[in-house]
From TrEMBL:
<keyword id="KW-0812">Transmembrane</keyword>
<feature type="transmembrane region" description="Helical">
    <location>
        <begin position="131"/>
        <end position="150"/>
    </location>
</feature>
<keyword id="KW-0472">Membrane</keyword>
<protein>
    <recommendedName>
        <fullName>Protein sym1</fullName>
    </recommendedName>
</protein>
<dbReference type="GO" id="GO:0016020">
    <property type="term" value="C:membrane"/>
</dbReference>
<dbReference type="GO" id="GO:0005739">
    <property type="term" value="C:mitochondrion"/>
</dbReference>
<feature type="transmembrane region" description="Helical">
    <location>
        <begin position="21"/>
        <end position="41"/>
    </location>
</feature>
<dbReference type="Pfam" id="PF04117">
    <property type="entry name" value="Mpv17_PMP22"/>
</dbReference>
<comment type="similarity">
    <text>Belongs to the peroxisomal membrane protein PXMP2/4 family.</text>
</comment>
<keyword id="KW-1133">Transmembrane helix</keyword>
<dbReference type="InterPro" id="IPR007248">
    <property type="entry name" value="Mpv17_PMP22"/>
</dbReference>
<feature type="transmembrane region" description="Helical">
    <location>
        <begin position="53"/>
        <end position="74"/>
    </location>
</feature>
<feature type="transmembrane region" description="Helical">
    <location>
        <begin position="170"/>
        <end position="190"/>
    </location>
</feature>
Amino acid sequence: MFSTARRRVLDGLNRRYIYGRLPLLHSIIFLIEMVAAMRLATKFNSYYAEKPVLTTMVTNAILGGIADTVAQLITAFKTRPVRREYESSDLISIEIHDLDKEKPPALGELGQARNLPPVFDFERLTRFMSYGFFMAPIQFHWFGFLSRAFPLTKKNPTIPALKRVAVDQFIFAPFGLVCFFTFMTIAEGGGRRALTRKFQDVYLPTLKANFVLWPAVQILNFRVVPIQFQIPFVSSIGIAWTAYLSLTNSSEDD
């Protein structure tokens, strides 16, 4: 009973848009995530001082959720239905669709009616938040290793920073993408065949895109950002990157 009522509410929210452009449900979830991120940011230093790994894990999870929500917002915006004219004062309006009156859609199919964007995928959101959460300890120890192996000196900090970037990009970046696509494919219920197809189709293009963006970001990160903020900084910049990964991963599934 509760599940049925919840699905009705979610289907109803998915059919509503803000100013005819932004899906209401996606926007609500995005705002909730942003509030959580801002609350965490206000006390990040104290949390990090007490429990650095756990704080990094929670931060990564929230930022990963924001990234996937942005990706789902982009998809919903691109596939939004053609709307009829509505009053400019109407903040939230309901889409009107031509439904077969003799064969109305089943309850679970309301959000998939013709011309409707895909409903918000909570399972996909959970996968991205889980990946960020469980990947954070590996990132934490990796950044610690880089700081110890290539310490920055006041006399010449640029060379060690460049060494960190080179090691990070040629070792950790390929490994991180392997972890990402493996985790997502298994979490989606895919087997060896799906995983092989994923790597054949999207791994190398994604790795090339990584080499375009991340070297410059990591130079700034290693050269300027204090170590306790390096993973949050990467995760914040990575919202756009993770949104790209989310779109890449979901497009391959389609």
